[in-house]
Design goal:
alpha+beta; five-stranded mixed beta sheet; three-stranded antiparallel beta sheet; globular
């Protein structure tokens, strides 16, 4: 099928530069998933907002290469206020959702279940640390002479990212874990994340049409620096099971146990998929699993209304 356009050009920019380019009619579409971008572009002349739900599992990523003690990771899981973190994400946006309990399924999936640990709160977090041999010295816990202290890495200058990190620092101080903020330019994100050169980061991962394959990536020890080897046999059983429904049951069991026992990925939100698009731009914007990396033919239909 002949596409409607000869080419589509994508330009990578800092978020503030992208907003300026959209307002100056230099680009034809821009994401508006944060309060800053939504507020700035929602009333641009000649543009319209297209709204949907994002196929995304956002939250915290705790790197077991740096935060090696599972007790520390479990304490963060128990002590973090996921509702408050999600509220920061959606502040200023016309969007609400329930807190997701899965990194693999969207809540509208018939196979979704809330797999997040149920024992939560500051008291639970401090009990986990103390039972693991941590003792409090001043505001923070320590073990074997090492303070429970880690950097939270952020990228760019988006105020939502900054506010999320600052809130997390304060929240973990109440638990007795010291977090500091380490900011980098957006251009460094790819190299730092791909090399796993961080302790804790905000962000997330796309949710795909293949939950079993996703679980077999995120929840095996090879992906997580050897952590969670006791669950590798369950993952192998899941992958060798022929019945798709039985596979998905095993997938939920694997995710539930991994979030509870290994404690690396903290889901806090899925979020909106808002796009500000130039009026007349056809067949472009939020489309759930109709996205081009599932259906490349989407690009054929993008064009301009007559």
């Amino acid at each position: 099928t002949k596409p409607l356009l000869e080419k589509i050009v994508f330009t990578q920019m800092e978020s503030s530069a992208a907003r300026a380019a959209f307002k100056n009619d230099e680009i034809d579409a821009i994401g508006a998933n944060t309060s800053a971008s939504y507020t700035e572009v929602k009333s641009v002349a000649g543009a319209e907002l297209r709204k949907g739900t994002r196929l995304y599992a956002g939250g915290l990523d705790i790197n077991p290469r740096r935060v090696k003690d599972a007790a520390l990771r479990k304490a963060i899981f128990a002590g973090v206020n996921r509702e408050a973190l999600a509220k920061i994400q959606f502040q200023g946006l016309p969007y609400e959702e329930s807190i997701p309990g899965s990194m693999i399924h969207m809540p509208f999936s018939p196979y979704y279940q809330d797999n997040y640990p149920t024992k939560l709160g500051k008291d639970v977090a401090t009990k986990i640390l103390e039972e693991a041999g941590y003792t409090k010295n001043g505001d923070y816990y320590a073990k074997d002479g090492a303070k429970a202290s880690y950097p939270v890495i952020t990228f760019g200058s988006d105020p939502v990212v900054s506010s999320t990190a600052q809130f997390l620092v304060q929240q973990m101080k109440e638990v007795g874990i010291e977090l500091t903020i380490e900011n980098h330019g957006a251009s460094e994100m790819s190299s730092i994340i791909s090399s796993k050169n961080f302790a804790i980061k905000t962000g997330g991962y796309g949710i795909t049409t293949s939950p079993v394959d996703a679980a077999n990536y995120f929840y095996i020890s090879e992906t997580n620096n050897g952590h969670g080897k006791e669950l590798d046999s369950l993952a192998a059983t899941m992958m060798s099971t022929e019945d798709p429904k039985e596979q998905l049951k095993l997938m939920n069991e694997l995710e539930k146990r991994h979030l509870d026992e290994v404690a690396i990925y903290v889901p806090t939100h899925n979020g909106p998929n808002f796009k500000a698009c130039r009026k007349g731009l056809a067949n472009y914007g939020p489309m759930l699993f109709g996205l081009p990396y599932y259906n490349p033919n989407v690009w054929i239909k993008v064009g301009w209304e007559k």
